[in-house]
From TrEMBL:
High-level lineage: Bacteria, Pseudomonadati, Planctomycetota, Candidatus Brocadiia, Candidatus Brocadiales
Pathway: tRNA modification; tRNA-queuosine biosynthesis
A Gene Ontology cellular-component term: cytoplasm
Enzyme nomenclature, EC number: 2.4.99.17
Top-level enzyme category: transferase
One Gene Ontology term from the biological process aspect of the record: tRNA queuosine(34) biosynthetic process
SUPFAM superfamilies per the UniProt record, alphabetical: QueA-like
Protein's name in the database: S-adenosylmethionine:tRNA ribosyltransferase-isomerase
Catalytic activity line of the entry: 7-aminomethyl-7-carbaguanosine(34) in tRNA + S-adenosyl-L-methionine = epoxyqueuosine(34) in tRNA + adenine + L-methionine + 2 H(+)
TM ranges: none
Alphabetical list of Gene3D superfamilies matching this protein: QueA-like
Subcellular location as annotated: Cytoplasm
Entry-linked Pfam families: Queuosine_synth
Length: 353
């Protein structure tokens, strides 16, 4: 294989995946997921279960998790003609004004009025952005977040199939497409590596002597939109809001000072830590990041990465290739496929050491 520094084509981050390996439902117990251990220096691989994760931790390790909370941001709607729409609210711009991705069978027009959630309220399409999203204006004063809590659905990725007649699946998704430590509302996709943790797993990790801290990155379009440029270096990430409290920064420096490991749980936690590390002299405890990590990249804070198996041609796959080496990752993915691992959001995970 060619060196990672030359892997700048989108086709370098392609692989085939049988549809039956795309996890459609979460496991009954979060911690029963399979855990592939990848040693990035040697390429060695081990196969375990997530509840065995403490066997790969050391006292003094510092696990950093993303405590963002997914909002039920998926709404149904109709055009004046009665044709159905589906809206994914992606970002609140100001009172009653949101950015949204809209799925429609017909072309939409600026100035058009649409009706939301069985005509509970209307919204006007203001303008369409270059990224395909719409800026929409809801009826003034209507509490949109209350509407989402009442009628919104969890914004599951399109590869997880749900139909209107399996409402029980939708209701269980409200719990399971959410980490047990979710706290700060604002994400439109789950930080999926964190889905494997149960409260009991977190307690066992603490008793083992590893420490746990939380950052926030509200997962948005920057994380889940695919790369569309043939040269990945030309891809522009959407900005996402993050918070990294001062005590987390201090704990990272203390951990590294004692030669212990900083373990990022998920690509979103990793991007927060690396965004902060880039401004080490004047670190920001909160702000917006559009950091796109791809090979070659020098990781400043993250020593170990816990992550799910990602879609091809995505910024997420590029990030793990930067961390472990593209050849190691693609080889691990082939082995995972052959052993029947479950892929993507509700799937299994890997720990890169």
């Amino acid at each position: 294989m060619k060196p990672d520094s030359m892997c700048t084509k989108l086709s370098d981050y392609e692989y085939d995946l049988p549809k039956e390996l795309i996890a459609q439902q979460p496991l009954e117990n979060r911690e029963d997921a399979r855990l592939l251990i990848l040693y990035r220096n040697s390429g060695k691989i081990e196969h375990r279960r997530f509840y065995e994760i403490t066997e790969y931790l050391c006292p003094g390790d510092f696990l950093v998790l993303n405590n963002t909370k997914v909002i039920p941001a998926l709404l149904s709607g109709k055009r004046v003609s009665g044709a159905s729409l589906e809206l994914l609210l992606t970002e609140e711009r100001k009172e009653s004004q949101w950015k949204a991705l809209i799925r429609s069978n017909a072309k939409l027009k600026a100035g058009e009025e649409i009706y939301i959630a069985d005509n509970i309220l209307s919204a006007k399409l203001l303008k369409k952005g270059e990224d395909g999203s719409w800026l929409i204006q809801f009826d003034n004063g209507y509490p949109i977040k209350d509407l989402l809590l009442r009628t919104g659905k969890m914004p599951l990725p399109p590869y997880i199939k749900r139909t209107d007649n399996n409402g029980t699946c939708y209701s269980s998704d409200k719990e399971r497409y959410q980490t047990v430590f979710a706290q700060k509302e604002g994400a439109i996709a789950a930080p999926t590596a964190g889905l494997h943790f149960s409260h009991s797993t977190l307690e066992r990790i603490k008793k083992y002597g590893a420490e746990i801290g939380f950052v926030t990155l509200h997962v948005g379009m920057g994380t889940f939109l695919p790369i569309k440029t043939d040269d990945i270096r030309k891809h522009q990430m959407h900005k996402e809001y993050y918070e990294c409290p001062r005590e987390i920064m201090d704990k990272i420096k203390e951990t590294k000072g004692h030669r212990h490991r900083v373990i990022a749980v998920g690509s979103t936690s990793c991007r927060v830590l690396e965004s902060v590390a880039m401004h080490n002299e004047t670190p920001q405890t909160s702000g917006w990041t559009n950091l796109f990590i791809y090979p070659p990249y020098h990781f400043r804070y993250v020593d170990v990465l816990l992550t799910n198996f990602h879609l091809p041609r995505t910024t997420l796959l590029a990030l793990v290739c930067a961390f472990a080496g593209r050849e190691n990752i693609l080889n691990a993915y082939e082995i995972a496929k052959n052993k029947g691992y479950r892929f993507f959001s509700y799937g299994d995970c890997m720990m890169i050491m």
